[in-house]
Amino acid sequence: MTRTALLTLGRLPKGLDLARALAAEGWRVVVAEPFGWHLARMSNAVAACRRLTPPAVDPDAYLDDLAAAVEREEADLVLPVSEEILHVAGLHGRIAADRLFCLPRERLLPLADKLRFVRLAEGLGLDVPATAPLHDPEAAAIVAAGDAVVKPVFTCSGRGFRVVRRGGTLPEPGEPAIVQAFVRGEEIATFAVVRAGRVLVNVVYRAAVRSGTVAVAFERIEAPAVERWVAAFAEGTAHDGFLSFDMIVADDGRPFAIECNPRITSGIHFLTPAAIAGAVLRPETPLVEPFRPQRVFQQVFPCLTETQGSLFRRDGRFRANARHLLGARDVTWDLRDPWPLITMTATSGVILARAVREGISLGEAATRDIAWPGRPARAADAPAPGP
Question: What domain range includes position 177?
């Protein structure tokens, strides 16, 4: 009997990877999300799509819509993909826990909250930068001692991020935010699948090409110290599900985690479909050769735009950007499933239009209607009517 997996986002390439991996295992894949048209809708790995109320517009209606889709599609497993996970976690108590591939909301919020995450990691004896709430006396001390970063407690895609130089003035109060000591070193990211506190697979990667604060080309690297940090955190918190971190590897080689993302990130692109499905569906079975042979992947359209832009800048990035553009494989392309890439401009129309109209990044435009709590949503954040 065919089993059904319901994914709660289809607009991003990482959701497409998950859909393809599960379909390759013989699962029927359904996507339920606020956009009528999205990247995964065009994939032959997706059997059906259901449209939901945007959670940032009406979280209660979103959960009602999602619960109804789960029952209508007789979904055996519900898998959150991105920022919507904190909303999806509200399904706990409404459907059986073993049908939901995420922890309850009360377990996820301390990870997504940038201040609570730092305190949690400190309690486990793990390295994190000095961090304090904005306008707490400790925040002023952090800025007095050196450069610092200010960012909202809940944010994604670089929204609200700013650097304050040593001795500088902190911004006025607004939404809850933190001040974090600026650690000098290499920025890296991780993505892991964790079951019962045990890391089944962990990807460590860095940005090869950036568009603003968001990576649009990625390079997998080896970093044993980072892997040990992730394993210690997963075990110490008894985490279960997807687990990702943004880190700085300091000049002395120590990794400092600056934030936690309890969701899928771009690191999933480095895993084989068999490894993705195996980690999700068969956690008791060891994974064999989980990584794809490619060390670098790109998102071709934003990488093209960034490469073109770097031609006119003096940051020395054009040659490196062009090398990745011409040599790296696109995360979406699959000869057996070509339509998601071919139709990407059309299926990304809502995101592109919002970014241009409001002068915001593509990353923010793609996630604002699903973020928690994100920038206050408006009725205009609901996508235009469509299938």
Answer: 130-181
- % the chain with pLDDT above 70: 96
* Residue 308 belongs to some domain of the structure: no
Domain assignment present for 349: no
Q: Please state the domain count of the chain.
A: 3
Q: Is residue 245 part of a domain?
A: yes
Residue 375's pLDDT is 46
Instruction: Kindly indicate the confidence band of residue 321, based on its pLDDT and cuts at 50, 70 and 90.
Output: confident
Residues 163 and 244 in one domain: no
Whether 170 shows a pLDDT value over 70: the answer reads yes
Q: Are residues 148 and 61 in the same domain?
A: no
**Predicted structure pTM score:** 0.91
Mapping DSSP onto H, E and C, the string for the chain reads CCCEEEECCCCCHHHHHHHHHHHHCCCEEEEEECCCCCHHHHCCCCCEEEECCCCCCCHHHHHHHHHHHHHHCCCCEEECCCCCHHHHHHHECCECHHHECCCCHHHHHHHHCHHHHHHHHHHCCCCCCCEEECCCHHHHHHHHHCCEEEEECCCCCCCCCEEECCCCCCCCCCCCEEEEECCCEEEEEEEEEEECCEEEEEEEEEEEEEECCEEEEEEECCCHHHHHHHHHHHHHHCCCEEEEEEEEEECCCCEEEEEEECCCCHHHHHECHHHHHHHHHCCCCCCCCCECCCCEEECHHHHHHHHHHHCCCCCCCHHHHHHHHHHCEECCCCCCCCHHHHCHHHHCHHHHHHHHHHCCCHHHHHHCCCCCCCCCCCHHHCCCCCC
